[in-house]
Amino acid sequence: MHLIPTQDEVVALLRETGAIRDGHFEYPNGLHATEYMQVQLAMRYFQHAKVLGVGLSRLLRGNPEIRAMIPELSIVSPDTGGLPVAYSVCEALRAHQVYWAERKEEHAPMRFRQYLEQAPGEKVVLVDDMLRSGRNMNDLKTLVEASGAEVVGLAVIIYQPNPNTIDFGPLPLYHLAKLDATYYKDSSSCEMCRVGVPINKVWV
């Protein structure tokens, strides 16, 4: 395994732990896909979490501007799914702190826990296990910036864009692997539905 694992190494690790699954999946937004990932299944194991966290931290260190901020850099994660990645990256970077935002209900706005407040001018890297639609990251970015903090980058284990993925413009996005699933807008356009492949409805 390389210090920054290759895409093939990351995929092999995720398949070994069951974090990548092939099949016929329907997402809550109605999209159908040929692949589903749950990176948390790999993050259950300390040795795998360390490999992925260290690899992602090295990508961040490769940016000289971010590297200079590390002693005061905050790592912020949406919800709880990205927290294992956030803590692993923070430890490997020796960054300043980790905190996170959450939703009280499915479509509620993101918010921080009481007393978790950003300082004006605070430098922040947003970290998650994966970026698919980008909705969580975009909502978190808006929340962080509303307090005057500055988002300086995004970092995820897996980048798996779909046709509706949000564009974050010039903000640097770091990932260990980029994977492309085949997406269908709905059941009427889905080839797997057409031939009767059993469907699995996934939560996220």
User: Strand portion, in percent?
Assistant: 25-35%
Structural class: alpha/beta
Backbone CA Rg: 17 Å
DSSP, total strands: 10
Number of helices: 7
**Number of domain modules:** 1
Mean pLDDT: 92
Describe the structure.
- It is a single chain.
- The protein is an alpha/beta fold.
- The chain has a single domain (7-198), classed as Rossmann fold (3-Layer(aba) Sandwich), CATH 3.40.50.
- It is built from seven helices and ten strands.
- The strands form two sheets. The protein has a six-stranded mixed sheet with strand order 5-4-3-6-7-8, with helices on both faces. A four-stranded mixed sheet has the order 9-2-1-10.
- Strand 6, helix 6 and strand 7 (150-159) form a beta-alpha-beta unit.
- The protein starts with 6 loop residues before the first helix and ends with a strand.
Furnish the topology, listing elements before pairings.
Layout: H1 7-16, E1 20-26, E2 32-37, H2 40-43, H3 46-61, H4 64-69, E3 74-78, H5 83-93, E4 97-103, E5 110-112, E6 123-131, H6 135-146, E7 150-159, E8 173-178, E9 183-184, H7 191-194, E10 200-201
Which properties best describe this structure?
single chain, 204 residues, alpha/beta, Rossmann fold, 7 helices, 31% helix, 28% strand, globular
Structure described in brief:
This protein is an alpha/beta fold and 204 residues long.
